[in-house]
Every structure is written in C-alpha cells, then in structure tokens.
Task: inverse folding
C-alpha cells in the first residue's frame, strides 16, 4: 500500500511539473522578443538618428493613424535623391524607386490579430517610441526588445493611470478613486 501511495504521489508530482512547464511554454507563444529579421535593404536607424532625423518624419502616420506605417521609398528619396553618398544599400533603394517597386520590409513588431493597437493614441499621449520599441535610435538592425505581452502593456497602462490619478488627486482633494484609463478589456480586444 505504501509503495502504491508513493508511486501515486510521484506520478502526481511529475504531472504537476509537466503541467507547469507546459503552461510556462504556452505563456510565451507569440512573444518574439529578440526578433530581428534581415531586411531587403540593410537600414540603420542609428545612422539616421545620428543625423537627427525624427522618428515621426519617416513614420508620419503614427500621429494620425492606428499604424505607424512603413515609409514609402519616396520619403527615403527626399534625402537620398540629393545626397552624393552612394552605398550598395542606397543603390538598392534607388533601383526599386526607378522600377516603381515597393520595398518589401519585414514587420518586426507583431501583435496577435485579436489585439487592437492604435499608434496615434499613444503618440498623442506622449508615449515615446523607445518605451515600446526600445532604443531604436542605436540599432543597426531593428529588434523587438519588449515582450509586447498583455501583462507588459497593462503594467505600463497601470503606471500611467497611477500617475494620472495622482495628478487628479492633487487637484481635487478628497478624490481617492480616480478612474484608471486604458484598462478596459474592450479597448484592446475585440
């Protein structure tokens, strides 16, 4: 009887450990932290940042749109059409423009289809690009630095909500339960 009980406890312990390992693995499905695909043109954000070109010059849609947008090649040509510097990568750009073909960039920061994300809401709320995308200004090749999981997003929303609530409390003494903006499930999931 003792052996059966010991065997049962060991089997239950093994099943629990396997279940915990599987749950941990499943919690990371779709988390592409560290993803840095090779792009059709080796574009260096660092070089462009060193030239003090603002993120929103190229990703102008981020101010008004759900998507930040990948800039069309013609935006690149605003500068590269007049610069004298030639590299193999700049030549690739010019050839694509001349052929009127788009640059087939590979998207780095991907969210699941059931998640609604709006860049303009974040840009207009003074969320900096680096808060979600990491130090892109120093990247030779763009890499996903943040996990972009629901928990990661909610932690940021809670921090911002706490800061907003603290400011409201300072202005309206006695108000201790200020609403926490950005924590409504329906805001991001549909």
Result:
């Amino acid at each position: 009887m003792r052996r059966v009980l010991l065997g049962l406890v060991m089997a239950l312990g093994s099943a629990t450990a396997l279940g915990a390992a599987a749950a941990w693995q499943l919690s990371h499905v779709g988390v592409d932290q560290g993803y840095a695909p090779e792009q059709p043109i080796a574009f260096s954000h660092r070089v462009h940042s060193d030239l003090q070109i603002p993120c929103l010059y190229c990703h102008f849609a981020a101010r008004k749109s759900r998507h930040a947008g990948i800039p069309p090649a013609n935006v690149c040509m605003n500068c590269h059409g007049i610069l004298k510097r030639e590299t193999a990568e700049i030549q690739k750009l010019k050839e694509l423009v001349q052929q009127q073909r788009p640059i087939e960039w590979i998207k780095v920061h991907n969210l699941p289809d059931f998640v609604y994300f709006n860049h303009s809401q974040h840009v207009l709320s003074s969320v900096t690009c680096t808060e979600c995308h990491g130090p892109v200004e120093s990247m030779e090749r763009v890499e996903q630095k943040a996990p972009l999981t629901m928990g990661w997003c909610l932690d940021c929303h809670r921090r911002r909500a706490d800061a907003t609530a603290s400011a409201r409390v300072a202005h309206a003494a006695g108000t201790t339960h200020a609403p926490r903006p950005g924590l409504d499930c329906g805001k991001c999931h549909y």
Observations:
- DSSP finds nine helices and no strands in the chain.
